[in-house]
Amino acid sequence: MINPQNPGRASGGFNGRNNHNINQADIKINVLSWPDYEKFLIARYTAGGHTKETALQFAKEEINAILTGNHWTRGKPTPADPCQLIFSSLFPDEQEYFSERAGIFKHDAGLNRADAEAQALAEIINKKYPIPKPNSRSVYKSSAAIKHTLAAGIGIKGFFEKSKDNDPAAYTTDFQKIRGLWDTGQRRFKAFIFGRFLAIDVDRKCGKVDGLETFYRIFPKEILPEELQNLPETFPCYVKTPSGGFHLYFKYNGPELNLRELALGVEIKEWQITCPGSRKENGEYILHGELDEAPPLYGLIIDAIEETKRKKEQANAERSRPRTRAVADRPMRFTKARITLDDLADEATAARAGNHDRQVSFAGKACRCKFSVAETLAYVKSRADIFGNDTDTENTVMSVFRDNGGCS
């Protein structure tokens, strides 16, 4: 293995299998350096779900901390040796691979032990942990994005024109007409996508519910196709919005789905949407990729839409259902449809970010709306996606009821 006292020199033997023919003349010795360790870290951070940008930032910060003595391992400053650090970070199967390859390089290519080890680690870095390929999709801004939208046969109109937004006759694919609006200084447009595309609007406005987190609560990454696993970078066609959110474009010409919001921060745009290339005071809508490369709308998304509609219809039916309980059973009368626990959960989710804060807010509202502690606690435990379910969940709910004068 790597000798920590002398980086690049060997201590101990190898268990590699001599099953490849490698000539020393064909090998360019790669002594590992800090750029190699940076590449290794970027790959690890990316595999953990970080974007390429944050992975690069974290890798540089970690290396800087090591070099300045501010990074600690097992209570001691981390040694500033990229070769040793890479080896100590390998998983057991990678260490086995390292031993095998180092043995092959030593015996088949005639390398000395230090060079064989360095070459084996370099191979792991370059083959098992390559730097993610840069995104090669086209990027369309401003008038180029608008031209691309028109070329795809999508009608456009001025954003604030006095016409029905869902009327296809209000839109045009005539480039000269849109250019005339552009020449007058108009920079914001609507695009009519019904019958061609469906867009999912993932909102990421500061201070509001993060639509991306909501999306991945609805659709766990492990069940998603590759294009949806690291949004928006992995998606073939999307529009980045000025607020930091994005519109995912899907090909869809099926029956109308009739749902405006899948969940807080995740909207369904079925008829019209802000046109790519439009500009607002805080930025523009930038198109990434080609519209004709948008994937078909996945069945799992359609299923989620239909399930959300079913729950909304069921909740509406419960609100409008006439009360049948006797006055003695519950003397309070409601002049309006009674609020449901689903409604209170939506309010808590919109107003609070942490699980504990949502539990407190929801329990207080439920108590004041005359729900029992048993009903409230059962609902909280059934919605771990909103409230979590840690060891203090039950105590939190019961404590709030006691503080508000509720009874079980």
The helix/strand order is HHEEHHHEHEHEEHEEEEEEEEHHHHHH
Distance between the termini: 64 Å
User: Helicity, in percent?
Assistant: 40-55%
For the largest beta sheet, what order do the strands appear in spatially?
3-14-7-8-6-10-9
Average predicted confidence as pLDDT: 81
Q: Give me the secondary-structure category.
A: alpha+beta
Indicate the proportion of strand residues: 5-15%
DSSP summary: helix tally: 14
Low-confidence stretches: 1-30
Structurally, the number of domains stands at 3
Task: Please tell me what the overall shape is.
Answer: flat
Q: Major sheet: size, sense and barrel closure?
A: 7 strands, antiparallel
Radius of gyration: 29 Å
How many strand elements?
A: 14
Provide a compact summary of the structure.
By secondary structure, the protein is an alpha+beta fold. It contains 14 helices and 14 strands.
Please specify the SSE layout and strand pairing.
Elements: H1 34-47, H2 52-67, E1 72-73, E2 76-77, H3 82-88, H4 92-109, H5 113-128, E3 139-140, H6 142-151, E4 155-158, H7 175-183, E5 189-192, E6 197-202, H8 211-218, E7 238-240, E8 246-251, E9 261-263, E10 266-269, E11 272-274, E12 279-280, E13 283-284, E14 286-288, H9 299-320, H10 341-351, H11 355-368, H12 373-382, H13 384-387, H14 393-403
Antiparallel strand pairs: 1-2, 3-14, 4-5, 5-11, 6-8, 6-10, 7-8, 7-14, 9-10, 12-13
Helix pairs in contact: 1-2, 1-3, 4-5, 10-11, 11-12, 11-14, 12-14
